[in-house]
Specification:
Number of helices: 4
Helix content: 10-25%
Order of helices and strands: HEHEEHEEEEEEEEEH
Oligomer: single chain
Number of domains: 2
Strand content: 25-35%
Radius of gyration: 27 Å
Largest sheet: 7 strands, mixed
Amino acid sequence: MSGQEAREVRTTARQVNKRRQMMRLLLIIILFLLLLMSIVFAGASFLNKAGRFTINLDPEAFNKYGISISEKQAFDNPTVFLQGTSLENMWNITQEWLLNDPNNKEYYADGFPTYQSYAELDQGDGEHNGKDYIAYTFYIRNSGSEDIGYFGSISIDSVVKGADEAARVMVFLNGVPTVYGKTPKNPRAENASFGIDEFFVDNSKVMETRKTDFKSGEVDRYTIVVWLEGWDPECVNDIMGGAVTLSMNFKILEESFNNG
C-alpha cells in the first residue's frame, strides 16, 4: 500500500470514528431531551393535581396538640390534609347564580345542587361543587386536653393570566359568610368592588383568621366557595384559560402559650 493510500485509509477511519462520536453525542442529547420532557410532563401533571383546592394542617398541631381536620363532622377519619377536585374551564358567573334557582331559567343549570339561601350552601359536607364554582366544607376540631389558639389563612399559590383579578372567595366560618376579592386596579371603575366584603390581604393571600380561645372539644366549621365574578371589570377575555391555585393552611398560635 502506498503512503498516499495509507493516509487516505487513516483519514477515512478518523472520519468514521468522528461520525460515530457525533452520533453517540446526538443520541445522548436526544435521550436527555426526552428525559427532560418526561420530567416536565410529570411536573405539569403533579401541578395539575396539586392545583385543586387543598387544606393543610401543621402536623405538629395534630401530633402534639390534638388538632385535626375532617370533611365529616363525625371526624371518622381525622387528618392533616384534605383536597377537593378542581374544575376545568370554569366560566364566569355572579354570586346570585351560586344558588342555581330552578325558577330562574336564565342561569339555572340542570344536574347541579340548588339552594334556597346561602345558608343552605354552607350545609354540605366535603366537596359540593356547582356549575362553574368550587364549594368545599370541612371542620377543624380540638380533641386535645387543653384550650389552644390557631391561625388560618388562604394562600394564592399560583396564578395564570391574572385570573385572580376577578376571583371571589366566600368563606363561611360557623355559618357567617364573608366574600373576599382583590383590591381593584381602578377603584373608580363601575362594579370594581362588586360583591366584596373585604379585600385580599395582599397579592399572595386571600384572608387570615386567628382564634385564641379554641377550647378543648370545640369544632369550627368552614365552607369555602370560589368563583369568577362576571360583574368584575377585570373579568375580560384576556383571563380566559387562566387559573388560580388556592390552599388553606392552619397552624398553632404560639402566643396562645405565651399568654397562658
